[in-house]
Amino acid sequence: MYKLKIISSSVRPGRKGPVVADWIAEQARQNGNFDVEIVDLGEVNLPMMNEPNHPSLRKYEHEHTKQWSAKIADAEAFIFVTAEYDFNYPAPLRNALEYLYQEWGYKAAGLVSYGGISGGTRAANSLKADLSTFKIVPLYEAVNFPFFQQYINDQNVFMGNDSAVKSAGNMLKELVRWTKGLKSIREDQG
After folding, report:
1. Cα–Cα 20 to 30 A to 69, which of 31, 38, 104, 106?
2. What angle do CA 40, 42, 44 make, to 5 degrees?
3. 75: burial class by Cβ within 10 Å (0-12, 13-18, 19+)?
């Protein structure tokens, strides 16, 4: 089983990212190839980047950075769950990415986006472009939820429809393939 970190990126009060993350986590568990952990940036609560050394040096001075580094280094694959704020992904996610460098590298990432009419696709496209600068391989296959509130029931549980379940299945299938292939690249870093 591969270690999959599902990163929920919204931190603002009333956010719905955690319920979307719960839904994709259940899809990933049903896939059977992943040991799934949800990482909620609202709980991680990283301050704005405050390390004096460049992240590529891995000379971290703050405990919060050391803990973040260990959590991300432990991952073999990611799924980023992102809202769309002002046509982009949330600033706390960019901040979390910039804290580290080597820990992200040569790992695949699926994207689950949600929003209004665009389903968060503008945020997802922006995130895809940025992920490659961290040597993360963003997948083509993704899951998008336009008008996402319609999928949240009265118990605040996210309920993806059949199309979303199919999209998630396709994304997870590709995530397994890429994770397997990138593992050999990570092992060859010497």
Report:
1. 31
2. 70
3. buried
Sheet holding 34-40, edge to edge: 34-40, 2-8, 77-83, 107-115, 136-146
* pLDDT tens digits along 90-143: 999 999 999 999 999 999 999 999 999 999 999 999 999 999 999 999 999 999
CA distance 128 to 91: 15
Q: How far is Cα 140 from Cα 108, in angstroms, rounded to an integer?
A: 11
CA dihedral for 85, 91, 96, 99, sign (positive or negative) = positive
Q: Which two tokens stand for residue 59?
A: 């000379």
- Are the C-beta atoms of residues 118 and 146 closer than 8 Å to each other? yes
Rg (CA), the chain: 16
3-state secondary structure of 177: helix
| Residue in the block written with tokens 């997870």 | 172
Show the tokens assigned to 79.
Answer: 């799924």
Cα torsion 108, 13, 55, 70: sign:
negative
